[in-house]
Amino acid sequence: MISSKYTIREQNEAQILNQIIKEKEISRAKLSQVTSLNKASVSAITKKLLADHLILEKRIGELNTPGRKPIMLTFNNKAALVIGLDLGYNYIDGMLSFLDGSEIRRFQLTETTITKENFFQLVDSVITELTLQLPQTVYGIIGMTVAIQGQVLHDKVISTAYDYLTDIDLIQELNAKFDFPVNVENEANLSALGEYTFSSHFENLISVSLHNSIGAGIVKNGKLEIGKKGYAGQLGHTILFPDGRKCGCGNHGCLKQYCTTQVIYSEIKQAKNLAKVNSDIIAELYHQNDETVQKMLGDYAKYLAIGINNTIMLYAPELVILNSALTKKIPEFVTMIQNNLKNQFAKEVNVINSPISWNPAIYGAIAFSIQRFLNIEQLKLDSLK
Q1: Does the reported pTM lie above 0.90?
Q2: What is the Cβ-side half-sphere exposure of residue 54, based on CA atoms within 13 angstroms?
Q3: pLDDT of residue 157
Q4: Which class is domain 2-75?
Q5: Which is the CATH superfamily of the domain at 201-353?
């Protein structure tokens, strides 16, 4: 019974705080109306939230009826700090933000050779850069979430293509190094959570990450769908061509063997006999009307459209968001994918470039830590709008 009452109190507190975040400023009387909690409960909960420095009494509001003017409550977005990291095969992106996701500082290591021997040293260097001259807050850093391209379940890395993460208990090592909680989650999942939290009003969406692998982060009714053992969203391991190219997963003809960025760069490099290829070079060739590159991108768009079509048919999202350097630099690539979605149901779903200008996975990592600190699921923040 005690446990049940405690749980109810926690739920009511989260509901009140979430409503204050949504409304930006609101009176106690209005909170009682919209949450259906009685005034005494609202008063007790807001008193606690004020004592915890999670909300502030901002100003005296206007009065439409006789009585005392209401005191308006607002979320204290500067009560704490959060860190998000995104680990790539040759890069580490990091960001420090306030409790609403508003950026304080970002730092990037690019074109970096990451090994088991230097990995933790590189992470230390990124954290050091991010935490120089920290703003004064009540709680300090309340958490860090790390995005990786790989299978993750309950903060444990099950599998990843990164050699530097094999045979390492990432969470145990990081939690031993830092005095704040550390979580790890799949990059595509966090990209979807970042889009849900910061860029979209939809409750059901899919974020397709096109990098060295192809992953689909799935948000259903405001919550991440990770599936058994974190397998959900492995779009790159859906079959494109039966008996096609061999894949490391054990199958043949997987989507990732035909249109990851790694494959795209490699095949265009070979076709054009170039010494180096990246998204900037491909974008330049495309916009110079290079026929070979335009045709090849058309083929890759066709392949990706098949995978996206199948995903739409399985999950019926309201929105599909593409997250890739290629789609950012060649917006026409998104149009090609849309044009290859012939299915009448798929045509009803908007397919767009990520509205987040810099690394949605980082914003998802930030959101992941904020959700846990505030004990709020289905959290919507608008610091990017």
Answers
A1: yes
A2: 20
A3: 86
A4: mainly alpha
A5: ATPase, nucleotide binding domain (3.30.420.40)
